[in-house]
Structures are given as C-alpha cells and as structure tokens.
Amino acid sequence: MTKGQLEAEISKALTQWEKDYLGRGSVNVKTDVVRDMVIVALKGILTPAEYRLSETMEGLLSIKKIRSDLVESGRDRLGEIIKEKTGEDVITFHTDISTRTGERIMVFRLSNDIEKKLITKHMKR
Prior knowledge:
Low-confidence stretches: none
Number of helices: 5
Radius of gyration: 16 Å
CATH topology: Threonyl-tRNA Synthetase, Chain A, domain 2
Strand order of the largest sheet: 1-2-4-3
Shape: elongated
CATH class: Alpha Beta
Number of domains: 1
Order of helices and strands: HEEHHHEEH
Mean pLDDT: 92
Largest sheet: 4 strands, antiparallel
Structural class: alpha+beta
C-alpha cells in the first residue's frame, strides 16, 4: 500500500467511525502521514445549531467540552482503527476543535515511523 492509499483508507475509516459513533460524518476528511504521526483534519463537523451556540463564550466552551468528551469516549476504537490501518500502536492522541471554522484536528502519535516504513517498502518494489 502506498502512503496516499493508506491516508485515503484512514480518512474513509474515520468518516465511518463518525457516522457509526457520533451519528453523522464530517463534510471533508484529509489525512496526512508524517514521520510517526497520523494527522487528520475533519471539516464541517458542527451542526448549524452548534455554530449558533458558539456565538457566545459560554456556548463555545460548552461545545468544545461536549465534542471533546464524545471523541475521548470513543478513543479506544479510534486507536484500534489506526492500528488496523498502520500496523502500529497509538502512543498518544491529541485533538481539538475550532468552533469558528467547524474543523477538528486529530493527531495520533505512533510507536514507529510509519512514513519511513511506507517509503522503504515502496522503494523495494
């Protein structure tokens, strides 16, 4: 599998996780494998009501907390998905959401340099 194929597979799997676990998927998902990290940008994740609620500081903080708690509660499955796709354990997971743009960023730190592994494997062919 090429780096691009792996990135597409991870995007597809995380979109499905969102639909299954959160009830709806994001509008656009882009995954990048960089060294020992999988970086995922999910766009269009907020509902119209959440955008409206985020107009106040109290609403903004509430949305960030609830969305963070939801993702954290599904963290084990997210780690399993990344391990299934990359063959590497997830060492750390970081995420944040922008209530201004409706974008979530997820960063998975892996046990090994997956990018190097993919490039080496591809070059041997």
